[in-house]
Every structure is written in structure tokens, then in C-alpha cells.
Amino acid sequence: MTDRRLAIDAWESLFRAQHEVFHEISGDFDDELGQAEYDVLLTVTRGPEMTARLRDVTANMLISQPSVSRLVDRMVSRGLLTKCADPDDRRGSLVTATDAGAAVFRRVASAHGKAIAERMSPLDDTELAQLRDLTAKLRRRPASA
């Protein structure tokens, strides 16, 4: 049986660490690409031909489906994404990163990746792998190597 006090202490530590790290790296985003837009482009650019179903984008976001739809529409109007009907699911949509969207994503991702690596540098590779695996377990998802 899990020690309740230890579980609470671990949760509080995880929550505070996430909050502090998030606050430190939030400066990586600017007027050209905000954090939510970065998150959308992260999902989209990882898809085949830099395309993802809108429902997959929504599933990866921490905001509601209507908010994701409005965000995507704003990104389309800014030329970062295109959006079309999903030929395999008439109720769904596909979003694709434009060349401009992919370019701004790569620029921000490079700086953001450096900031994350620097902030995580107190942990060695073994500890980073353990952290990844433990957080995946908490999320009830298999860790990816």
C-alpha cells in the first residue's frame, strides 16, 4: 500500500517543479508564436507530411475542443496552417503546417529545446530516462525510448 504522506509530498514536489520549470521556459515564446500555437505545430509537424487530424491536435492539448478550433482558425488566418475536410472522416478536419508555419516552429523549437536541455541539466541521462518513464506511468502511457 502506498504511503499517503509520501504520495502527497511527491505530488507537491512534481507540481511545484513543473510550475517553476514552465515559468522559466515560458520566455521562449513570443508574439510570433505563442506556447499554445507551438503545441499545435509540434503535433502537426510530427505527422506524416506535416499533417494531423484536428481531433489528434485537440487530444494533445490542455484546452477545450472549441478553444483548439478557434486557435487553429487563427493560425490558418496567420498563414501558419491550412485546414481542410478529412477525406476519411467527413465530420473531421485535417490541419497541415505551411512552409511559414514549419519555419517559425523550427526556429522557436531550436531555442526552446536548448532552454529545456539547460534547465534539465542537473539530471544525468539515467535520471532523465527515469523521469520520462515515471511521468509516462503516471499518465498511464508507455514511455517512448
Question: Can you tag this structure with a few keywords?
Answer:
globular; 145 residues; 6 helices; alpha+beta; three-stranded antiparallel beta sheet
Describe the structure.
Helix 2 packs across helix 3 (54-60) and helix 2 (35-46) packs across helix 5 (99-120). It is globular, with a radius of gyration of 18 Å. The chain is an alpha+beta fold and 145 residues long. It starts with a helix and ends in a 7-residue tail after the last helix. It has a three-stranded antiparallel β-sheet with strand order 1-3-2. 15% of the residues are buried. The longest helix is centred in the N-terminal third of the chain and has 22 residues, at 4-25. The chain has six helices and three strands, in the order ααβααββαα.
Mean pLDDT across all residues, rounded?
Answer: 90
- Give a short account of the largest sheet: 3 strands, antiparallel
- Discrete helix count: 6
Q: Which regions have little confidence, pLDDT < 50, spanning 5+ residues?
A: none
Reading the helices and strands in chain order gives HHEHHEEHH
Which descriptor suits the 3D outline? globular
Strand content: 5-15%
Count of strand segments = 3
Assign the structural class, choosing from mainly alpha, mainly beta, alpha/beta, alpha+beta, or little secondary structure.
Answer: alpha+beta
Radius of gyration: 18 Å
Share of helical residues:
55-70%
Name the strands of the widest sheet in spatial order: 1-3-2
Distance between the termini: 29 Å
